[in-house]
Task: inverse folding
């Protein structure tokens, strides 16, 4: 099973790359057929990504929400899916040029950080056996996906030096912010059940809070002071860098309760 | 100076101040978690910052409550009203979470208990001196097929005034609740029963892993390093599994504090250190580690968490409405 999962992921990675490249080319010349091809590649990549997720679920017999490997698989997939949804709703197509590369980066990190993990899994350790954990991780994945979309759109605006997409950046961040808030509270409920402390300032919690604060500030200044365009975009990018640090940096550099062991 | 006071208060409770405080909190947390990961949250400065944030947030939420009443009177419509209300719910949620945390800091209590089977410990005492004791009836590790741990279970009884109150099982993710107290499965370990003998003098003791024993009438010492239930040379000091397939105690010997040897002894085997000097590991007594906690702030934090989630969801609902209808999303529409 591990081999098939790995192959699906290689395929997904290649398709995400191709898709990103086509979006870049399409954006340069505003060629609709290129955009269409890019979208097809993205859909194909998402399908291969989904295949890996389904196979993983069949292999482990539980939802793919329990370790860093599964989180990355889901994170990437949700990111691409949210983008495709955005493209369908907004009819804008430039964001894909950045987003698909973010997706490719996320997926490739699996091959760099956990190359042996495709067919491997361990039964859940006692602390991880909780419905609160499942909902906590699920909301975190949705939040991260939305922030990735926000960051992709913000980058495009920074590159193009415009702000026509501000409202959509704001929506992505707002939606992600809701999910991150829910995720943090549910994480607290879980920690209270498992360890008897809902907040212990461990590195993961601390960095999730920092991420949350950056986006809260963005939302505050966006609405009240009318911070739009350049500065707002920079903040959304900074927020996403923090998201990545909260995941990679804390899991692989710092350690704490959340390191999956 | 009421006017100055008013001005300061106004500046302090402004959104600008709130945003600045949040930014400071983020900066502090970032520095703290990298430089002092284990203790930055105890720094006075850090706590003062949170308290200031708490007051800023409380005052500005109070002001918003007053303003919303006026807006309500002016007829902002049900949707505008919904957004305003959800923002208040959300901010009150954060305030309650902070209150819950502060109550826990000041009045909460937490202790760690180490109990071997049959042992008791006091967990609570009411004003009239009636005590509640917890007794460990048994500790159990459930294993998966591949012998990794799947659950740790402490079977316990609670005694009030020496009368049995209730029996239950505490496991990871399933704490025991008893009158405002919660008891958690935190960890476990093994006590080692040791008998040492020096020139005919026999000493029995029960020790924690890592402890050092003196052997009577000699310069010998034995360090009870670790109990390994499933010893296998290929795994070194690690146990091959949690099943007691080949139980050994890893120990080291010292003469005059100089390491003189190391070994992995089976249980119940008398080991001769030197002529007339022996050590024997007679048995293992598992113990559980429980965390006993009382957090009077938890209901506040819990209610805050619920209000906060509810408020955030309601407050952001509107951003998904069509552009143009949003309040202030597109300035052009308003002007
Ligand atoms: C101190 C003064 C504060 C004021 C006057 C204030 C005011 C506001 C306002 C007006 C909004 C809605 C934005 C809009 O629709 O225009 C808002 C949203 C929000 N506030 Fe505050 N706030 C303050 C402090 C805080 C603090 C300290 C926190 C968190 C610890 C916080 C958390 C939030 C969150 C999570 C939102 C939702 C995000 C959004 O939609 O903007 N606020 N606040």
Result:
């Amino acid at each position: 099973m591990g081999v098939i999962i790995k192959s699906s992921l290689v395929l997904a990675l290649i398709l995400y790359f191709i898709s990103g490249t086509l979006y870049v080319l399409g954006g340069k010349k505003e060629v609709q057929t290129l955009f269409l091809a890019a979208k097809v590649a993205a859909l194909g990549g998402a399908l291969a990504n989904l295949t890996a997720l389904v196979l993983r679920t069949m292999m482990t017999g539980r939802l793919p929400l329990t370790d860093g490997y599964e989180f990355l698989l889901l994170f990437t997939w949700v990111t691409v899916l949210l983008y495709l949804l955005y493209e369908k709703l907004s009819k804008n197509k430039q964001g894909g040029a950045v987003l698909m590369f973010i997706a490719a980066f996320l997926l490739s990190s699996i091959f760099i950080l956990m190359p042996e993990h495709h067919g491997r899994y361990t039964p859940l350790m006692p602390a991880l056996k909780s419905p609160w954990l499942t909902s906590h991780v699920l909301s975190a994945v949705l939040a991260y996906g939305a922030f990735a979309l926000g960051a992709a759109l913000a980058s495009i605006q920074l590159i193009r030096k415009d702000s026509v997409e501000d409202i959509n950046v704001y929506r992505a961040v707002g939606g992600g912010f809701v999910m991150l808030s829910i995720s943090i509270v549910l994480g607290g409920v879980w920690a209270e059940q498992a360890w008897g402390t809902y907040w212990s300032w461990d590195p993961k919690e601390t960095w999730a809070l920092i991420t949350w604060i950056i986006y809260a500030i963005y939302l505050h200044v966006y609405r009240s002071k009318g911070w739009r365009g350049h500065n707002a975009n920079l903040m959304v990018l900074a927020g996403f860098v923090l998201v990545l640090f909260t995941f990679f940096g804390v899991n692989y550099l710092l350690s704490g309760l959340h390191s999956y062991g | 100076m009421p006017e100055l006071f008013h001005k300061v208060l106004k500046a302090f409770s402004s959104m600008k101040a709130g945003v600045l405080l949040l930014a400071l909190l983020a900066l502090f947390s970032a520095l703290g978690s990298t430089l002092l990961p284990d203790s930055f949250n105890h720094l006075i400065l850090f706590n003062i910052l949170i308290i200031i944030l708490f007051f800023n947030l409380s005052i500005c939420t109070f002001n918003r409550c007053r303003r919303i009443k006026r807006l309500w009177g002016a007829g902002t419509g049900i949707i505008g009203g919904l957004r305003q209300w959800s923002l208040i719910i959300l901010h009150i949620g954060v305030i309650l979470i902070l209150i819950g945390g502060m109550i826990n800091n000041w009045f909460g209590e937490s202790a760690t208990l180490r109990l071997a089977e049959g042992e008791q410990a006091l967990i609570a005492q009411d004003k009239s001196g009636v005590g509640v004791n917890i007794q460990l009836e048994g500790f159990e590790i459930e294993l998966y097929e591949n012998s990794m741990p799947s659950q740790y279970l402490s079977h316990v009884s609670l005694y009030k005034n020496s009368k049995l109150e209730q029996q239950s099982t505490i496991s990871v993710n399933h704490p025991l609740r008893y009158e405002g107290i919660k008891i958690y499965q935190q960890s476990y370990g093994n006590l080692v029963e040791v008998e040492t003998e020096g020139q005919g003098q026999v000493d029995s003791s029960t020790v924690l892993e890592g402890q050092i024993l003196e052997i009577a009438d000699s310069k010998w010492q034995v360090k009870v390093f670790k109990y390994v239930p499933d010893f296998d040379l290929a795994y070194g000091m690690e146990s091959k599994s949690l099943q007691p397939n080949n139980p050994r105690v890893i120990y080291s010997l010292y003469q005059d504090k100089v390491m003189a040897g190391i070994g992995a002894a089976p249980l119940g085997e008398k080991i001769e250190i030197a002529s007339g000097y022996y050590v024997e590991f007679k048995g293992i007594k598992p113990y559980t580690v429980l965390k006993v906690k009382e957090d009077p702030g938890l209901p506040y934090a819990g209610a805050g968490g619920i209000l906060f989630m509810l408020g955030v969801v309601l407050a952001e609902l509107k951003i998904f409405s069509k552009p143009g209808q949003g309040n202030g999303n597109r300035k052009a529409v308003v002007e």
